[in-house]
Structure formats: structure tokens, C-alpha cells
Design brief:
Elements lengths: L12 H11 L3 E5 L2 E5 L11 E4 L13 E10 L8 E11 L11 E12 L2 E5 L1 H6 L9 H11 L3 H6 L12 E8 L2 E7 L4 E7 L10 H14 L9
Parallel strand pairs: 3-6
Antiparallel strand pairs: 1-2, 1-4, 4-5, 5-6, 6-7, 8-9, 9-10
């Protein structure tokens, strides 16, 4: 029987923040008392529009004209789960010049602080950690993979639920995939008034998107080998 580890591998805070910054479709820029909603990231993510730099530490006085700024990005589950907001990333720092929401040029920003917030709390991520973190190979394809699973193969979700050791008397009303990354697939188990996320780790972490198919098939094979049925309460 394949058992789920008590602490299944998961992306670090820096890896999650890196992926959110890379694949976000929109962001809110707060500067000079104004909120600008940027909805044309065009697949380039936030870092295609803002270049992060270390805070000024050179001799003398820092250059003038720098403008305080806050960037806010949200990570929303692509599937119709309860509580779709998965995480929020907030960057604060200084811009080299006043922000122009209509500019197509990338803006330089001295990063003061990066914060990742999710259901588990708040984590601070340094610029060095962000720069060292690899972009998850599934990040740009995650939404398509999860919606494909829900829309075209809904019969596989109850099968995968066997790996979570869920039984009808657990009070699970619905289970849906809520995330997938290089380390595994996450199911959201919804109860009457609450929900919980269960990670199903891959046998090996995925280094390329072409390798995710065999890892999912391995999860399905492990689920089929389990003897107990898994049914959702309706």
C-alpha cells in the first residue's frame, strides 16, 4: 500500500512566490496614494514589467527621486473549489522614478520586502531567495492541466482520493484538484463547513513538463491497487 508521507514534499515559500510572480495575469500597484490595476501582463508575469534590485548600499547618499511602491499579486485556484484564493504575494520597495501605468518599459525597483501569505500564515522571502528559486516547470501549464482533469476526467478524482485514505464517514462532500507542482498534486476535500488540502506526492519531482504524465499515471496505479472504495457523500 502506498502511504502518503506525514510531511509530503512541497514548494518552498521562495519557489511559490517565484511562480506567482511569473504567471500572474494581473497585479495592483500602489504608489503616490494611487491604486493602478495592471491587467495586461501578457504572459510575462510581474517580473516582465518590474526588475527587482537589491536596496541601495553604496557609499554616499542614495539617488533622489525614488518613489515608495507596493505590488500586490494574488494566486487563485483555476478549479471551482471552495475558497479559491490560494496565496497572496506583496512586494514593497522603491522605484527609480514615478510609476507610469501606461508605460510598456520595465521599471526598476529596489526590493525592500517580499511577503507570501496563505492559509498557513505569512512568510518573508529575501531577494536572494527569490533569485535562487527555480520557476516550477508546471507553473505556466498548471491551470490547463487542472481544468482538463476536472472537465475531461472527473472519474479520476475519486480514484485519487483513495490515496488520501478518505472514507464516506469522513464527511467529505466534494473533492477537487486545487494545485499541481513539481512535487505532486493537491486535492481539496470539502466538508459541510470546512475543507482541507491533501498533497499526493510524486514518486520523483518533475524536472520537465513532459515528465508529469508518468508521475500522474503512477499515482493512479497506486490508487487502483488499494482495496477500499472511495465514495463522496452527495
Amino acid at each position: 500500500m502506498r502511504r502518503i508521507p506525514l510531511r509530503a514534499p512541497a514548494p518552498t515559500a521562495a519557489e511559490r512566490a517565484r511562480s506567482i510572480l511569473a504567471v500572474a495575469h494581473s497585479m495592483t500597484v500602489v504608489t503616490d496614494g494611487r491604486h493602478s490595476e495592471i491587467r495586461r501582463l501578457d504572459g510575462a508575469g510581474a517580473m516582465g514589467h518590474v526588475h527587482l534590485h537589491a536596496p541601495f548600499e553604496g557609499p554616499g547618499t542614495p539617488p533622489g527621486g525614488r518613489v515608495p511602491v507596493r505590488l500586490e499579486l494574488t494566486d487563485v485556484a483555476p478549479t471551482p473549489v471552495r475558497d479559491r484564493l490560494r496565496a497572496r504575494v506583496t512586494l514593497t520597495g522603491l522605484l527609480a522614478a514615478p510609476y507610469d501605468p501606461d508605460s510598456t518599459e520595465s521599471t526598476c525597483m529596489e526590493l525592500g520586502q517580499c511577503v507570501l501569505e496563505d492559509g498557513d500564515g505569512r512568510v518573508y522571502v529575501t531577494l536572494q531567495e527569490l533569485e535562487a528559486a527555480e520557476l516550477d516547470p508546471l507553473a505556466t501549464s498548471e491551470a490547463g492541466m487542472l481544468t482538463h482533469l476536472v472537465d475531461d476526467h472527473p472519474e479520476l478524482v475519486p480514484l485519487l482520493l483513495r490515496l488520501a485514505h478518505a472514507h464516506p464517514d469522513d464527511g467529505v462532500r466534494r473533492a477537487l484538484p486545487v494545485a499541481i507542482d513539481r512535487y505532486g498534486l493537491t486535492l481539496r476535500l470539502e466538508h459541510a463547513r470546512s475543507h482541507q488540502d491533501i498533497r499526493l506526492p510524486f514518486h520523483k519531482s518533475v524536472r520537465d513538463i513532459d515528465h508529469v504524465g508518468p508521475q500522474i499515471h503512477a499515482l493512479l496505479a497506486a490508487a487502483r491497487r488499494l482495496s477500499h472504495p472511495s465514495r463522496l457523500i452527495t
